[in-house]
Amino acid sequence: MIYRSRAPLRIGLAGGGTDVSPYSDLYGGAILNASVSLYAYANIEPLDEPTIILEAFDQKQVITYEASKSLPLDGQLDLLKGVYNKVVEDYGALPCKGFRLSTIVDAPPGSGLGTSSTLVVAILGAFAELLKLPLGEYDVAHYAYRIEREYLQLAGGKQDQYAATFGGVNFMEFFADKVIVNPLRIRQEYLDELEHNLVLYFTATSRESAKIIKEQQKNVTSNNTASIEAMHQLKEQARMMKEALLRGNLQAIGEILDFGFQQKRRMAHNISNALIEDIYDKAKAAGAVGGKISGAGGGGFMIFYCPGNTSYKVRETLGAMGGICSPYRFVKSGLTTWTAK
Question: Which residues are annotated as catalytic?
């Protein structure tokens, strides 16, 4: 038996950063995101010997331990270890002597598509499949959030765990004590046109999101009015994006993205840099109306809205800058688990 799971990465379209505490706790946050056909995968294969093997194919890492109820958190595949440790702590020993846990993610770490949180969701899904845990979507997303933010003490927001678990296009609201996921019923023709016009571009750089997020959090606690006002505007951007998509007002998407790009740069230093500014300017010169940095900023993926047939010129321009325009599709399904016999 092999217990498998798959969870989709996401594109954040509006409101990015307002899901991060303490802003979301104090003011409430709002984000609009969409899951795409890039995934994090996890597989658990029970073993007959008391051995735990952790293998991250994309990172080319393999670690072997004697079977134990808790694995050391030492910076080596801690996401894999963290999920295992908490599942055993909360639900008891696994029904096997040992196991092999293997993972792979379709995008590199630090790319801004929620890779770390999506991987945690996928791993948790594989353990839930093995143990037949009666966890609903909100349960899985909240559990994954607790593992990553509380147990592993990794800085970040709340949207990625919910996007990976629920899938689809969602307007999410974040508060101190709850998260509300509102699935959006967008006409397929609107989604098809959005997918055609939205270019997903990997800048061929990655970043450590924790430093940017910690500065963003500090700006809230120190009452940095410029940064907080920018977050207020990004929250409003999410509402603007929701209305535009539901009404099919796609010609407004680029302008809404551009508005958000201007606001996000005010949240913290290093969200943008000379490379990102150059990419953004050249994409707009080639026909993009607006775009955004995906995730915390500083590098990773960017998206651009290119109306009409301008996406072809934008892709050509961006390709000449050393990055990669990544193919994708919007997907409706979130976390999926199954057993292979």
Answer: 160
